[in-house]
Design brief:
Elements (H helix, E strand, L loop, with lengths): L1 H11 L2 H12 L4 H29 L3 H13 L1 H29 L1
Helix pairs in contact: 2-3, 4-5
């Protein structure tokens, strides 16, 4: 359970989360409302993430193998590709925020 908590905390401590908090505060929220909103959003994401990861950690199987039970051998490629596209989008988002921050300070 400690590793899930560490994953959740590390997921929350990143530049896009800080940018979201500053945007919420800039939009009129108090600092505690912004923190509560981000906390609730991360909690909503955490629940399916733990449910998805539980079988993989329990049986030691990766996500695509875990999906074969639900989607079949060929159909398991669809969630794997969707997961890869989300990872690419998240990487682009983080890279874009880092580039914007580095060009503003220069």
């Amino acid at each position: 359970m400690l590793s899930f908590a560490a994953l959740w905390i590390s997921m929350s401590a990143c530049i896009p989360t800080y940018m979201l908090a500053s945007g919420l505060i800039g939009g009129g929220m108090n600092w505690w409302q912004a923190i509560l909103t981000i906390f609730l959003g991360n909690l909503i994401v955490l629940i399916p993430m733990i449910l998805n990861a539980h079988a993989g950690t329990l049986y030691g199987i990766p996500f695509p193998v875990y999906c074969r039970a639900s989607f079949g051998t060929k159909g398991a490629n669809v969630p794997a590709i969707l997961r890869a596209l989300v990872a690419c989008g998240w990487f682009a988002s983080r890279r874009g925020s880092a580039v914007r921050r580095s060009t503003k300070s220069a």
